[in-house]
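Let's practice the habit of predicting before peeking. Look at the sequence and jot down your guess about where helices and strands might fall. Then scroll down.
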Amino acid sequence: MMAVMLVASATAFAGDSDALKAILKAKVYAEAEALIKSSLDQLATPEEKAKAYNKLVDLAMDQFNEQNTIQTENQVAAQMGKDPKPVDEALMTEMAYNALLAAAECDKYDQMPNAKGKVAPKFAEKNAQRLWYGPRNQLVNAGNSAAQSHNDELVLKYWGTFIETLNYPLFEAQKKGLDALDENVKKDQYGLIGQVAYFAGVHAQKVGEIKKAGEYFKVAANNNYVEDEIKNAAHNSVLSLMREGLKDKADTLRVLEEYKEMYAQAPDDDLLMNAIYQIYSELKDKDNMHSLLDSRLAKDPNNFVALANKGLMAMEENNATSAIEYLERASNIQPENAVVLMYLGVCYNAKAAETAETDQAKAKEIFKKAVDTFDKCKELDPDKLNARWGYNRYQAYYNYYGEDAPETKQAEADSK
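Done guessing? Here is the structure:
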């Protein structure tokens, strides 16, 4: 029994392994990294592994701080009219990136139970404090430079890592700290996260990293501080990526059910409703198309998306009267929407032509509505980028002013 106790004691108080000693003697990041890669399995305990990776963090931060100090000195020098010293931005960025990855590995082992079965992290607090701002912000700046150079891989590397660090347990206290900030500061901080997440998703999608793209888009879509335009674009991208690679009707129906489950949790989500509507449309399921829109309008009679889609459905069913009713209501909600105005003008033309068979005077009044509607559409979208009003506007002018009227001739010229 005494021999066993002596062995146990010797193990508990054994010094650092030779492999760890070699790593701790390294002077630069590259040397320590090579040693860890070649001898990780020789490190005896999680504590040794944590200590080794923390050494990597130290060395990366030494090189990062060296360049950061030069940047700070250059700012002072500029105020004094002195020439700046050269800064190795690439090295600074790479060391910020390396420090964050090494810190994540360090924390993984640092959070494991020690020989006594207790979790007693030694490096987490210090690493979280020194890495949360400077190195992460450097990745944002580096990603921006890479985007300007059209280097999608580097954008993904730096902006993607910036977003992924939000999931590091290491930074749990820092993330909670964000919520305690002044509302304006919080808006800036979370707004930046949302922007970076969205554009990281865009670049991930461009290089075929679809899974990562979806993850980044979700971060942006769930961010309540980012601009609505970015939030909605991210949400749309999430929904679009869910349909990536669909092979058959069974796949389409599977995604439809996923959309419906999401919609049940967010019944006011217009983008989700429209995504469901589009699948029903592809399936030519008119009953469910009407049911979906009618259900939404029963709850929200002024829902723009539902009204616009009801109008378009009525158009397809050659019901100009019903189409005009819905599209007028939609246009009253979004009077600057050129696309809705274009379709409304088309319906006025159709209704006027139909009315002309029995009431020429009434038809003339409706053609005038078409003229006014297309004029507003032209004003909003003069280059026909979104609303192709050209020929339809000419048709309205032709029927209202007559074939040879100068207004009609000008409308014909405008249509080309």
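How did you do? DSSP finds 21 helices and no strands in the chain.
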